[in-house]
Design goal:
The chain is of the alpha/beta class. It contains 20 helices and 19 strands. The chain is 37% helix and 18% strand. The longest helix has 15 residues. The N and C termini lie far apart (62 Å).
């Protein structure tokens, strides 16, 4: 049996478990982990200049790669800095293993400045939390952390490592533990869904999480064609496989009134891989959910179930196997020209997108027409920010590009206000030479909050409105990008955007387009 220090046993165990990429922002408590990376080859380390970049990038990596990344964070405050994107990752059912350094066990009672309730912070975003007690246990703890992270539908596991458990001798690398297979859905729940679909009442199927893969969407589309039901996805999702010959699926609108119209007349709702989705916020005198009060709701599968197997069984139950999977779409359009609008941008994106692109979407207000306007784009994956914590898009794109390095390009559709929460992502993209095209929707305001002012019926005078503007001074994203090693340019017309987007996607490395809108 090999004995090393705790840190080396941690790295060896992670590698034994198939985890070979770590997004890191280390401090003093993590120095033995950093040192172990020189002694134990095989771990790719990606440095982020803020913990929000680290956790968001690990999220994007896992969504694309289909296995966890590791994060390395510095004590409770470092973990706290990464909590917003850990919240987003939890909402996306992302697989992730956080390694958080902490005060040495004998030093903690002295209440040094960085001492915090690290476990308490971790529990807010983690399905599994453990603090290592001895170097001898670090390897075994790490193996359990990986197993828990990979348990369906994907979870966040946080291992807290007092620094002496890393530097002490006696560490024992552990072997990978078996990961449980996703549970199968209850056959009765599938049969009940089939009965509802065949009874003639207006029915809506809502697909989420693992049910948004191309094969499962295609099966749902066949079922919809056979039964007359409608299918839809929640507004914000971890990853949807769409475009090309894949079956299309729309999302529940973010805005209350269009969402209520979408559900109007629906008498039966079948939930597949998702919980009942509420509206993002409560508004005075508006319902909390788009579900009609007289609609019957049936849960066919939960997020942890095997969605593909359940949908295939449902197709058999309703006799939908002979249906074709996809309606005929309109031809791929030419790039748009003239003024910049959400609809024109969607047209150009559809026309110019490369096959097998990954889109990381934090476009918010300007981008609301883009998803529905790109069904006929070439095949691509679409990632959003299910937790709604601002600043997820740029790190998501960064981690996705690490996962897809040399194989696929990533396009980040990014609002300007939320970009400023994690713009350090550009530095990591430059450092790693990642193939990311960032499109900043630059309207120089928090446009979504202007709409929310009206939705919540709050008054807005000069002081309130000034808090929602990104002017005085204006942000210059081309200069900000250049300062972090990323080339960029500004576009003020669709023709300029078309030219820049084409150039960006034919080159290697990152490029930023500031799109005036």
């Amino acid at each position: 049996m090999t004995h090393v220090n705790g840190a080396e046993s941690l790295v060896r165990t992670l590698l034994n478990s198939g985890l070979d990429t770590c997004f890191a922002n280390p401090g003093t408590s993590e120095m033995h982990f950093v040192s172990a990376l020189d002694n134990v080859p095989g771990m790719q380390c990606v440095l982020g200049l803020s913990e929000g970049v680290v956790t968001g990038a690990a999220d994007g990596y896992a969504r694309v790669m289909g296995k966890p990344a590791v994060t390395l964070l510095h004590c409770g405050p470092g973990l706290a800095n990464g909590l917003a994107n850990l919240h987003n990752a939890r909402r996306a059912n992302t697989m992730m293993v956080n390694c958080v350094g902490d005060q040495a066990t004998h030093h903690r009672p002295l209440d040094a400045p960085l001492t915090a309730d690290t476990e308490g912070l971790a529990r807010t975003v983690s399905a599994w939390v453990r603090t290592a007690a001895h170097a001898t246990q670090v390897g075994a703890d790490a193996a359990v952390a990986v197993q828990m992270a990979m348990t369906s539908p994907g979870q966040i596991a946080t291992l807290i490592l007092p620094s002496d458990t890393c530097w002490d001798a006696g560490g024992v690398p552990a072997r990978a533990l078996a990961v449980p297979s996703p549970p199968t859905a209850n056959p009765h729940a599938i049969q009940q869904a089939a009965r509802l679909l065949k009874n003639g009442a207006p029915t809506l199927m809502i697909l989420g999480n693992g049910a948004l893969r191309a094969g499962t969407i295609a099966a749902a589309y066949k079922i919809a064609l056979a039964t007359g039901a409608k299918i839809v996805a929640p507004n914000f999702n971890a990853l949807i496989e769409r475009g090309g010959k894949r079956s299309p699926i729309d999302r529940i609108p973010y805005v209350v009134e269009p969402a209520l119209l979408e559900f109007s007349g629906i008498k039966q709702i079948i939930l597949i891989g998702t919980a009942k989705p509420p509206f993002f916020f409560a508004y005075p005198s508006k319902p909390a959910s788009p579900f009609p009060g007289d609609a019957h709701t049936h849960v066919m599968t939960r997020p942890e179930h095997d969605q593909a197997a359940a949908m295939a069984a449902l197709a058999i139950e309703v006799g939908a196997l002979g249906e074709t999977g996809r309606r005929l779409g309109t031809p791929r359009p030419h790039p748009a020209s003239g003024s910049v609008t959400s609809e024109a941008f969607a047209q150009s994106l559809t026309a110019l997108l490369s096959e097998d692109t990954i889109i990381a979407d934090e476009g918010l207000t300007f981008g609301r027409a883009v998803f529905s306007g790109t069904h006929n784009a070439p095949a691509h994956d679409w990632m959003a920010v299910p937790g709604g914590a601002i600043g997820g898009g740029m790190p998501l794109a960064t981690g996705a590009a690490v996962a897809a390095a040399g194989r696929r390009r990533v396009v980040n559709l990014q609002a300007d206000g939320s970009a400023m929460y994690s713009i350090q992502s550009l530095w990591t993209q430059a450092r790693q030479k990642l193939d990311v095209t960032t499109v900043i929707f630059s309207n120089r305001k928090y446009a979504i909050l202007l709409a929310e002012l009206e939705n919540v019926r709050a008054s807005a005078g000069k002081t309130a409105l000034s808090m929602l503007e990104l002017t005085n001074p204006d942000l210059d994203f081309v200069k900000l990008a250049a300062g972090m090693g990323v080339e960029g340019a500004r576009a003020e017309t669709m023709e300029q955007f078309n030219d820049l987007f084409t150039i960006a996607n034919k080159r290697s490395g990152p490029f930023l387009i500031e799109l005036a809108c």
